[in-house]
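Q: Predict the bound structure with N,N,N-trimethyl-histidine.
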Amino acid sequence: MTSQEAFESRGPSSAGSARQRFLVDVIEGLGAPRKTLSPKWFYDRAGSLLFDAICELPEYYVTRTELGIVKSHAREIVAHWGDRVRLVEPGAGSSTKTTLLLEELGPTRCSAYVPVDIAREHLAATAARLRTEIEWLRVLSAAADFTVELPLPPNDDNARTVVYFPGSTIGNFEPHDAERLLARFGRAAGKNGLVVLGVDLKKDPAILHAAYNDAQGVTGQFNKNVLARMNRELDANIDLGSFAHYAFYEPTHGRIEMHLVSRKRQMITIAGRRFHFREGESIRTEYSYKYDLPRSNTSRARLAFRWSTPGSTTTSTSRSSSFACTELPRLRRPLALSKSVAYGKRRFSSMHRTE
Ligand code: AVJ
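A: Predicted complex:
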C-alpha cells in the first residue's frame, strides 16, 4: 500500500456512519418549525456530478469567472507561496481550478495536494484522475466533512500549508460561521500558512437569479438530489414531483436562498419517521452569500488586479467574481468577511453588472 492510499483509507467516515449523520441531520432539520437541510448533503456522487454540470451552464458565471482569474493570474497567485508548498482544498469536488495552480507550482515546489471532500466516491474519482493528469503529483486525499475537521497528512518535508478555498463555497456559511471557519483553516495552515479564498460578489439580482434558476433546470435537479438521496439512502418515499425548486436573491442579507417547496399538503416518511408539510411549506436547502469588496471603488467592472507585498491581501476582480488571497495574520479580519463588508451600507449601489 502506498502512502497515498494509506492517508485516504484513514479517512474518518465509514459509509455506515455517514448515513447515520445524514439521517440525524435530516431528522433534526425537518423536525424544526422552519425546515432546513445543510447544503453539504447535496454532495454524494450524483450531486457532485450535477454540480459539475451547473458549472458548465451558461447562466452560472461563478466557476467560469473564477477560472478566468486563476488562468490569467496563476503565476502571481502562487508567486509568494514559498519553495515548498502543500495545497489543501476543503470541498475540492472535481478540483478543476486547482490543476492550474498545481501545474504552476510544478514538481519542485509542490510537496502534496490534499483534496478534502465529503463525497468519498467522487473524491476517489478526482484523485485517480489527477494522478493520471499530473504524473508527478502526490495526491493525499481525505474523505471528510470540512465543517467538522480538516484532516492533514504528516508534513514530512516541512512544506508551507496553503488552504485553498475557492468557488465561493464560503458563501454557504452565515457570516459568523464563515469567519469561524476561516479562522479554523488559518489555524490548520499553521504559523507560516496561508488561506486563499475565492468569493462571489454582489451584483445585479437578475444575474444572480438566472444563475440559480437555469433554463435547463439543472439547478433544480441538484436541489432535488437531496430528496433523491433520502429515497436512496434513508429509505424515504418522497415524490420528487411534489416539491418545486425555488431560488431567489434576498438583498437584506445579500444571499441567494434555495428552497424546496411542497406543492401540496403531504406527509413523507423517512426511515420510518413521518414529516408533515403544508401546501407551500418549504425546506431551506442552501444559502449562498454574496460579498462586497472592502474598498469603496466597487464600480470597477473590468478586470483589476492589485498585487501587494506578502503580508497583505491580493484581490482580483473580474466582472462578477473576485478572488482574494489573504495571508494568515490577516485572517483575524478576513478581507471579504468583515461585518461592514458583509452588511455594507452600499448594498444596492455596489451591485454591478457582468458586462
Ligand atoms: C458550491 C456553494 C459555491 O452557492 O453557487 C450552485 C452551489 N447552488 N447552484 C453556489 C450552488 C446552486 C454553489 N457553491
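A: The chain has two domains: 26-58+211-289, 63-203+295-352.
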